[in-house]
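Listing S7. Sequence submitted for prediction.
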Amino acid sequence: MTSFAQLSTIQIRVDEMAASYGETVTFTIHLDEMELKAFICLVFLAGIFKSNHEDVDSLFTTDGTGRDIFRATMIKERYLFLLTALRFDSIETREERKRQGNKLAAISEVFDSFISNCKRNYCSSEYTTLDEMLVAFRGRCSFRVYLKGKPQNYGLQIMFV
């Protein structure tokens, strides 16, 4: 698949980190495309559940308060390992991208692929409705906006089709 064409590069990074854990650790095994997709889906689900600031231990708890989908997909140690090992950024081209001024350069290739997939799979019609929303965000971000009339003045402006 073209969206996961860099899986070999990702695998090299995972293998390098796995070597530092030693041979007896089982959660550093080879990464395949299906597991990568499952991991990305878990990260999306953490955002959907508004669990991005929640402790990872609480996502994987078995006392009824955790998220069953996380435990059913992979073990906590594997999730944490992949969260640490996976990067969209290449250290070899980092300085060049900084000089070009592209602040989203670390994820621009993945984001561009996402946008092209959205365009390819969705066709708007004459009945299309456009909407926008302001997602509250007070952190540091170059594209954070200030809108005086909104309940949350600072945030990220998102346009929907």
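Caption to Listing S7: primary sequence and predicted structure tokens for the chain studied. The first strand starts at residue 131 and ends at 136. The longest helix spans residues 33-48.
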